[in-house]
Write a structure and sequence with these properties.
Layout (H helix, E strand, L loop, with lengths): L6 H24 L5 H23 L3 E8 L10 E10 L4 E9 L5 E10 L4 H18 L4 E6 L2 H8 L7 H13 L4 E7 L5 H13 L3 E4 L7 H9 L2
Parallel strand pairs: 1-6, 2-5, 5-6
Antiparallel strand pairs: 2-3, 3-4, 4-7
Helix pairs in contact: 1-2, 2-5, 3-5
């Protein structure tokens, strides 16, 4: 007699199907090779990590907030706010990612401007920018962070526990795992007017065609935007 699969079996089936599809694309486009056991073990481990992240988020380690700010507001004294944005130069088939980390006084702790040669939809670029900012925050050894982006759809997607088996879903799953690694991580939506510094960094990345990481330094081209945000506090 056949029995209907349970929730855990369905989750594993979907994860393995997604992994197989991903490796199929890698083989077709990049000539990649993978042993079936590698695909299965990788899928099982990925699902376990994802489930752990969901439990951590349920305990309040991470949160997503859709309330939109119209101007930049400082975090509390124990938290660092990271504004992030992406920019695309379709004619050159590249995109840039910019992020700025600031304290409760509005002082710039670090900036990031990264450039990638790739063709991707705007939503994918924004999601990759958020993921890159979280990885960067780990490298900076930050424990309590707020991530702000002006892409409302990414904030909404991160608040949804439904798994998306696509390139975007893969990136969002990575973001959720990263969120659970911090003592506190909140993702919020901010309007473009409150995200100007990150936007300028993303545009700078397109012009520089390279990665630029700075600590305790504000580049001249960025100073007016940083000052404007500080005056609005």
């Amino acid at each position: 007699m056949c029995t209907e699969p349970g929730k855990e079996q369905l989750e594993l089936l979907c994860t393995l199907s997604w992994r197989i599809w991903g490796f199929r694309n890698d083989t077709h486009w990049n000539g990649g090779r993978a042993h079936p056991q590698q695909i299965i073990e990788g899928g099982v481990n990925y699902l376990m990590d994802y489930q752990k992240a969901q439990k951590s988020m349920g305990r309040g380690a991470a949160a997503v907030q859709m309330h939109s700010e119209t101007k930049w507001k400082p975090p509390d004294e124990q938290t660092v706010k990271i504004n992030v944005d992406g920019a695309i130069a379709e004619q050159h088939r590249v995109f840039g990612m910019g992020a700025v980390a600031r304290d409760h006084c509005g002082e710039v702790l670090a900036t990031m401007a990264c450039w990638r040669r790739d063709v991707a939809a705007a939503e994918i670029v924004e999601a990759r920018s958020v993921r890159c900012a979280m990885q960067w925050a780990q490298e900076l050894n930050l424990g309590r962070i707020i991530i702000e982006t002006d892409c409302a759809s990414i904030v909404t997607a991160l608040s949804n526990n439904v798994a998306l088996y696509s390139n975007l879903g893969n990136i969002l799953s990575d973001c959720k795992l990263l969120m659970s690694s911090f003592l506190h991580c909140q993702v919020k939506h901010v309007r473009r007017t409150g995200n100007a510094v990150a936007h300028e960094l993303a545009k700078r990345a397109l012009q520089a065609e390279g990665d630029e990481f700075l600590r305790d330094e504000v580049p001249d081209y960025l100073a007016p935007f940083v000052t404007r945000d500080k005056l609005s506090i």
